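Researcher: First entry.
Model:
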Amino acid sequence: MVKPKTKVTLIGAALAKPGLDFVYEGNVCTECESCKVRKTCHNLQPGKKYRVAAIRSNTRQDCPVHHEAVVAVDVLEAPIVALIGADMAIANSKISYEFSCPRTTCRSYRLCRPDGIIEGEKYIVGEVLGNAPDVCERGRPLKLVELRPI
């Protein structure tokens, strides 16, 4: 099995724990503009979900945004739990994820539009976890799956 490729980035020292999942939101403050390590902090794709794989030692840097400073970590793209059409829920198949439901009040909305998904990107259906926890308001047969980035 091929080991997933990691990327080095900087995150707040208080957040730096192996296994932590986060969605990178992009550069959200003006303090970063003049920082000498800005390119390392902001080298991820906004909107994608990442998982901290390892913390690098002796990499602490002062940071005006993060209270305790930042540290270097190895991250990889994290799997995402989502609802997809039952006809597409085939383990190890490739899909292009499309947001198709505008019903923001639906109890399943957060699973149909999970954080970390980029609309139109391709994913591999990792594991089929089972049926949707709630009935789809549009009457669609849905399955709960784990999606992995390609």
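Researcher: Second entry.
Model:
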Amino acid sequence: MNSPKIVYCHCAYAQVVPRETKEAVLKRLCDSGVEFEATSDLCELSARKDPVLLKIASMGEVKIAACFPRAVKWLFSAAGTELDPAKVQVINMRTESSEAACSMLMDPQIVPNWPIGKASPKPELVEN
């Protein structure tokens, strides 16, 4: 069985994740030798409808270190990219300690927590 892919979001623009937490998680990922995809900010990728989001969606099982699962789901949806709910675990660095976040990221088992239900923004909020 292959381990899930790991995506790390540095939340560079919103700055909603405690700096100490994201720096500790990034350092642990770098020191561990595991492969991971790092992004400066998923919000920015979503706003630009960046193809990186499609790449993430095509990874199969994926763990995303970012913020709230519902927010990450909305970001992918707003960019027109959907992920398989059974293959996504979002690690919330806003609420988890760096130790807990790293433990979840390094665990080869995935615990899907992708919110089920509508994620599309209201039509009046979408730019044409």
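Model: Note on the second entry: The chain has one domain: 5-125.
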